[in-house]
Amino acid sequence: MSDPPEQPGKPVIKEIDRGYVSISWEPPENDGGAPITAYIVEKKDEDGDWEQCNSFPVKDTTFSISNLKENKEVKFRVKAKNKAGVSDPSKGSEFVLPVSQTTAPASPGVPEAVNVGKDSVDLEWTKPPSDGGAPVKGNPKI
């Protein structure tokens, strides 16, 4: 006969972006004598109650939560499930604010004319010393 599993490890925040958080956790040290069949991921706003995030069984020890409110801090916890039942919840993660972690890039170097023609000029400049946390894309504006 098996028992419900022990609680999983405390969720760790892996990635944060606008309205989105990705978490991971360690499986329970003791599965209760039966394989873990699913994990239940729950979230809690700073002034709310715990509510389930996943509408389908989570089989892995990672999960991404989207459609989060950007102006509300949120934390997460996880329960493990086997054929005998559901574990106690893990300890809650730290509260996080699901906003973009990038900023505007730094200014590039001063453009220099390298080839001046009758009707055109070629310019060169050095790239910004900081990309703000995301690749710089698009056409330069002069």
From TrEMBL:
The keyword Lyase appears for this protein: no
One example of a Gene Ontology biological process annotation: sarcomere organization
Gene3D superfamilies tied to this protein: Immunoglobulins
Signal sequence interval, chain numbering: none
Database matches in PROSITE patterns: FN3
Chain residue ranges for the region called Disordered: 101-142
Domain Fibronectin type-III: 7-100
Keywords: Repeat
Cellular component, GO, one term: M band
Keyword Isomerase: no
SMART domains: FN3
CDD domains cross-referenced by the UniProt entry: FN3
InterPro entries the UniProt entry points to: FN3_dom, FN3_sf, Ig-like_fold, Striated_Muscle_Regulatory
Protein name: Putative twitchin
Organism expressing this protein natively: Stichopus japonicus
